[in-house]
Amino acid sequence: MRAQFVLSEIGVGLRRNLTMTFAVVVSVALSLALFGGSLLMNDQVNTMKGYWYDKVNVSIFLCNKSDAESDPNCAKGAVTDDQKGQIKTDLEKMSVVDSVTYESQDEAYKHYKEQFGDSPLASSLTPDQMQESYRIKLKDPEKYQVIATAFDGRDGVQSVQDQKGILDNLFGLLEGMNIAALAMMALMLVVALMLIVNTVRVSAFSRRRETGIMRLVGASGFYIQTPFIMEAAVAGLIGGILACGFLVVGRYFIIDNGLALSEKLNLINFIGWDAVLTKLPLILATSLLMPALAAFFALRKYLKV
């Protein structure tokens, strides 16, 4: 009988405050969708870091004849065979180096033509204008500075470049977007909590006579509060289910079909469905607990008979 009474009171409360309940559902759904999206964005950035940082190289570009005339770093002339041999020997002795690959001028010219063959500049370049280089794969990509300190400014070396720096700019942009999503989520969460508190307050006020009678006949405070708390929890759960739906549909539409980024950007290692599915229980639990706790603390102030 008690369970039936609580359920009937939940239905009555939701119907009486239908507009505010709808607002609670929408705000909870949007805030938790942003929360889940930010978690997935963080997973995506970490996945991309793990994938690309493992592939980045440090490049030591060697001076050629053209550099000797125009670049202050190559003022002593083009790199010699002895200098190239010494650079390779020193690289292979370093504990941070995993492998060393030499790229000749002809190979550099071939790779340039493959990547930028349509560029107007490509037709005017010749192999002797390209730079020889050593491509170094590090055991730890964070140790780039060790290579830069050892070889930057050495005779025959035009520059030392780290591909990780380019990726850091990209990941910085993605993390900035993630922070913006979290800020928007926090704002929506505050709005949702305010709506929950107002909904509970209106519901408690509209049923103040019934709750007064229940108090007079000896009903406990918890028994009186339960329908109000459950109303907020049910509205939150509906919002949480919608948020889960948004994430699932978003992952399917953006990565698998629709935009199909997994096919168009096959160089990016996108997160899988397991990353999405592991976030759904957290979102559902939050959608239940957050409104319930907000309603519980609101009732301590507004449900005094």
Shape: elongated
As a whole number of angstroms, the C-alpha radius of gyration is: 31 Å
Spatial order of strands in the largest sheet: 2-3-1-4
State which percent range the strand residues make up.
Answer: 5-15%
Helix amount = 55-70%
**Overall mean confidence score, pLDDT:** 80
Function: Part of the ABC transporter FtsEX involved in cellular division.
Organism: Streptomyces atrovirens
Keywords: Cell cycle, Cell division, Cell membrane, Membrane, Transmembrane, Transmembrane helix
Transmembrane segments: 21-41, 179-200, 232-255, 275-299
Secondary structure elements and their pairing?
Elements (H helix, E strand, L loop, with lengths): L1 H15 L1 H36 L4 E5 L2 H6 L10 H13 L3 E7 L1 H12 L16 E6 L5 H8 L5 E6 H44 L1 H9 L4 H36 L4 H4 L8 H30 L3
Antiparallel strand pairs: 1-3, 1-4, 2-3
Helix pairs in contact: 1-9, 2-7, 2-9, 2-11, 7-9, 7-11, 9-11
